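Troubleshooting entry. Yesterday's outputs looked truncated, so today I'm pasting the complete records for two proteins to confirm everything comes through intact. If either block looks cut off, that's the bug. Protein one:
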Amino acid sequence: MKIQKHATKSLMAEAAASWGAAAIRSAIVERGEANIVVATGASQFEMLGALLAEPDIAWDRVTAFHLDEYVGLPLNHPASFRLYLWQRFVSRLPLPLRAFHYLNAEVTPDAECQRVGNILKIHPIDVAFVGIGENGHLAFNDPPADFETDSPYIVVDLDDACRQQQLGEGWFPTFDDVPKQAISMSIRQIMKSRAIACTVPDERKAEAVQRCVEGKVDAQAPASILQQHSKTVLFLDDAAASKLPS
């Protein structure tokens, strides 16, 4: 894992998008297509905007996958990640994607994990765009994360810290409204990605960043596993990097 620090959130987002876009273009040159994973949440707003502005990406040769989704949340809910990805990314692309495989958590979660997981198995990921949660989670793999399962997608329980973050970011009116379960891409599946662009802004993430960068690889700090991925770049703004050595 490499670390890039940037003075502002905007510069961080542009750097992450540029690096990820280069990985997409490279895959298309090599194989005629690319497969990506796209994250959501407030930390990805600027990065997705910058990725949309990247030139010369043949988006019609790109297949995209959904990183995670709340169990039982309807598509029209303001916190729906399907809605987020459509509004902030898919509908704004200059060319339509070859395919976007959304997670529909309104159906039986285990069956949906199997359905999308089977598609993912034949589409090895070229670049995963991810973030780190305030509790150190990677996707919705809250601590203690499962580092062992080979299933591409799993149903996970959301801990109180994760649910509090979703409330604090304004996605839900009350804590009790935040779902208690989600479908998430598994840790091992994320680590199979050829390249990982991990974008983490804001001071509220600084402690989690410090634990995941300076601490041991530990299921209690799920994103610490990225230390073991040779082509991961952790893109930070100054606020998120504030607890790391200068």
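Protein two, checking that the full record survives here as well:
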Amino acid sequence: MTTLYVATTNPGKLRDFTVAAEAEGIAIYPLPGLKDIPASAEDEPDFEGNAQVKAVHYSRFLPGEIVLADDSGLEVDALRGEPGVRSARYADDAGFVTDTGTNTDERNNQYLLARLKGVSGEGRSARYRCVLVAVRGGECLLTAEGTVEGEILIVPRGAGGFGYDPLFYLPELGQTMAEIDLATKHWLSHRGQALRALMAKMRDSQRSAGTAVLQRTPSDNGPS
């Protein structure tokens, strides 16, 4: 089984990637020793830029192996794409505080609702977007993207998921991302879609070039 390494310690992201990878016959593991590696910069203006910077940075700590990094977040049409690349830091960037606790996800959700006060209908349309980059030895191999379209509710619903999931409503299912079962979420996930798209590109590249993109480099000294 092919093994890839993903540069994230976020349990929700790892879960999304792992389930999608299993369906593709691929094993995905967190990058070994990630917590001890200096953090990568994330100051690019878009998801692809941040994902590429992170993937290149972390790949240097695992020579010969393919390392994946993503950048993902929420885009709300009425807010001209906010919070976008700042999704995880949305409330912090604005200095937004609440009296109901310091949980980052809760504060981000409350700040989003405050920003959308008075907005209704199509103005609350939004999407989750993920850009995934595969790198080996500092060299970018492939980039892929996944999106999930939805709407932002007025009040949160559901106890599952993380981030903006309790507010992200899927009209075709009549549920939020925090209400759907895990199997459905992993299939719909923007991260799962990005991974499947990346694997399709790898297979296409292999067929056209006659060599396996997923094959280790001859100089590989990485873990097996």
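Both blocks look complete. Sanity check on protein two: The CA atoms of residues 58 and 214 lie 18 Å apart.
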